[in-house]
From TrEMBL:
This is MmcQ/YjbR family DNA-binding protein. It comes from Superficieibacter electus. The lineage of its organism: Bacteria, Pseudomonadati, Pseudomonadota, Gammaproteobacteria, Enterobacterales. Pfam families: YjbR. It comes from the Bacteria.
Length: 117
C-alpha cells in the first residue's frame, strides 16, 4: 500500500480534512478537528499513525513487527503502522475505519449531526 492510496481512503471519510504538521513532516487527517490518522515517512518507510484501544494496540505490536508505538502521540492508544510491511492492506483499512469511528465518538452531538454519516 502506498501513502497516496491511504490518503485517498482517509479523505473519502465524511468530514475528513487534511492539513500538514510541519514540525513532524506529516499529513494529518482530522474530522471536525479531531485527529484520526497521520501519514508520514518513518525510517524512510511510508507509515500511518492510528488510534486504537490500548488492548488492540498491544496485541498488534506483539503480533506484527511493522506496528510500533507512535513517537509523537499517546503511546497507549496510537500506533504507527508501516504501509510497506507485513500487515495486509485490508487490516490497515480496518484500523483506519476504527480510528475514524473513535474520533466520531468523541464529537459533541451537534458536530456529529453535521456530518453526512
Amino acid at each position: 500500500m502506498t501513502d497516496s492510496e491511504l490518503l485517498q481512503y482517509c479523505m473519502a471519510k465524511p468530514g475528513a480534512e487534511q492539513s500538514v504538521h510541519s514540525d513532524w513532516k506529516a499529513t494529518q487527517i482530522k474530522v471536525a478537528d479531531v485527529l484520526f490518522a497521520m501519514v508520514k515517512i518513518v525510517e524512510e518507510r511510508p507509515a500511518v499513525s492510528l488510534k486504537t484501544s490500548p488492548e488492540l494496540a498491544e496485541l498488534l505490536r506483539n503480533e506484527h513487527k511493522d506496528v510500533r508505538p507512535s513517537k509523537h502521540l499517546n503511546k497507549a492508544h496510537w500506533s504507527t503502522v508501516y504501509l510497506d510491511g507485513t500487515l495486509p492492506a485490508s487490516q490497515i483499512y480496518y484500523l483506519v475505519d476504527a480510528s475514524y469511528q473513535q474520533a466520531i465518538a468523541t464529537l459533541p452531538d451537534e458536530k456529529r449531526k453535521l456530518l453526512p454519516l
